[in-house]
Structures are given as structure tokens and as C-alpha cells.
Amino acid sequence: MGYSLLIPLGFLLFSSINGDSIQDPACPSFDCGNGITIDYPFWHQNQQIEHCGYPGFDLSCADQNPMLHLSNYTDLYPIKHINYSNKSLILAYSGLKSATCPTITHDITLNTSSLLFNSSGNKLVRFFYNCSLYPPSLPHIQCLQYGAKRSYVFKEGAIPEFDWNRYCASTVVVPVIEEAMDHGDLVQGFDQGFKLTWNQAAADGVCQSCEASGGFCSYSNGLPSTFFCICSYGRESINCHNHGVASTRRRPNYVALGALLLTIGGLVIMATVFYVTQKKKKNKGVGSYKPV
What is the four-CA torsion angle of 251, 258, 232, 230, rounded to 10 degrees? Predict the structure, then answer.
């Protein structure tokens, strides 16, 4: 009975010796609580020990919402949707007074080192805030009117001729999903947010090599200079191959191997005790037999 359990365990032992991991790689998906599954190349900046993903793709879970930090600003942008098939995500504008009264303090720009790109599905719009002088016939953002000062928003390329920079306190350029503006009020379109895409091929060469070998790119503390490749059996400095040549044998999973050896050892002891006990009972039964 006990020995029958050793047969399947033997297969598991062989699997561990050959490096077939019985655990998933250290790149788990997670959910901040709003139903959006966060997966590679994004990673949780506070909970994942292995920073499994691209630099700048670290997310925080604030108020059960995944939030992404962009550029050099402190703003966090809530994630509305992620499409892993076409490598795109939609971010919402944070800090709006309401869906119909946007006040955005700075341009939305991406660092040159960022792997995120402005989507072609966006349209750039320009705000002019607190203008002291303006063409009187133009519609303005009524919820942002303060006394005689007015604020305006226009699509880039369709800005009326006027010396806006001279008479307005500030100007801001931001992207908005083009469909949202084409099917409704320009200001209300900000409630739909804006779209960004990422390009897997834009990752550095060592990251491409890692992914091509079936690994996951990881950067300790999110720093590009601290790259390592997460494979099914552990870390590698470049990829999941052996010095650039595909390995015919994977590295042993020593943790799994140790656990299996302990389990097998325990079962062997149990089977031995069971065998000895049964044999003693049998011998005792034979010795006590008396013919009638």
C-alpha cells in the first residue's frame, strides 16, 4: 500500500531533478479590487518581491484602483482598462473637479526613456486658463469662469487666431480619446481619459533576449541597470538559455527536490513500519496455532 505511493512521487522527483518547476514563475497577476487584472509587463510596486516587468510600469493600488505614475510629475493616473492583445491601456485624468469641469495643471508628456507611447487614437487639445482678454463670441468653459476671467479649450490645429499666450495665465496641452470628442462635448470627453500603448520591441536588447527565451524581464527596484531574467526555475543574468545556447536540460529545482525527498523518506518509513507490523502479526498467528 505504502509502496504504491512511491511510484507517482518518483515521477515528480524525476521532474524536479530535470528542472520542471512545480511552481509558477515569480510574476503573478494581481487585482487591486476593481476587477482589472494586472499582468506582465506591469508590476505591483509594493507587494511583488520580484519587480517583474518593464521600468516605469510599476503600479500602486490606491483606493482599490490601479494607478500609474507618468513622467516626472507626482500625479497618479487611474487605469480604466488594459488590453494586453494590442498592448494598450486607457488612463483617466485624476484631480478633475468633475467630469464636466476639467482643470489640468500641466502637459501630459512621457520621458524619452519610457516604453509607453501616445496612441494614434488620441487627439491633442489645448487649454487656455484664466484669460483676461478674449474674443467675446467664443464659447468658454463656464464652470471655470472667475469674475471677468474665462478659460477655453480647443483641438490642436483648430485654435482661433488670437494672442492667447499674452492674455491667458497658463496653457496646457493634453491628449484625449478622439472618439470621445467626436461624439459629444469637448469638455465632457475628458471623462473618457486617454490611451497609451507600449511596444515590446522597444525594450532593450537584453530584455528582448529574455522574453524570446520564455522568461520575464525584471528590474530590481525598477532600475534599468539592475536587469535580470526570471525563468521558470529561477533567475538568469541574460536569458533562460545556457550562455546563449538552448539548454537541453534545465537547472534542478532544489527546493522542490528537497521537499519531495522529505516526503518520500517519510512514506518509506511509514511503509516499513506497516510491513514489519503486518509480518509480526502473521508470525504470531502461525506460532499460536494448535491442532484440535
Answer: -90
Residue 202 pLDDT exceeds 70: no
Q: How far is CA 198 from CA 5, 24, 84, 110, 281, in A?
A: 49, 25, 10, 12, 72
Cis peptide before 41 (omega within 30 of 0): yes
Of 200 and 225, the one with more pLDDT: 225
As a whole number, mean pLDDT of residues 204-225 equals 79
User: DSSP for 179-212?
Assistant: HHHHTS-TTGGGGG-EEEEE-GGGS-HHHHHHHH
Residue 8 dihedral angles phi and psi, to the nearest 5°:
-65, -35
Q: What is the mean pLDDT of the chain?
A: 74
Q: Give kind and range of the element (H or E) at residue 150.
A: strand 150-155
Per-residue model confidence (pLDDT) at position 151: 94
Average pLDDT over residues 142-169: 92
Neighbours of 38 (CB within 10 A): 19
Rounded-to-integer distance, Cα 230 and Cα 228, Å? 7
CB atoms within 10 A of CB 114: 17
Question: How far is it, in rounded angstroms, from Cα 154 to Cα 186?
Answer: 8
Check whether 15 has a pLDDT greater than 60: no
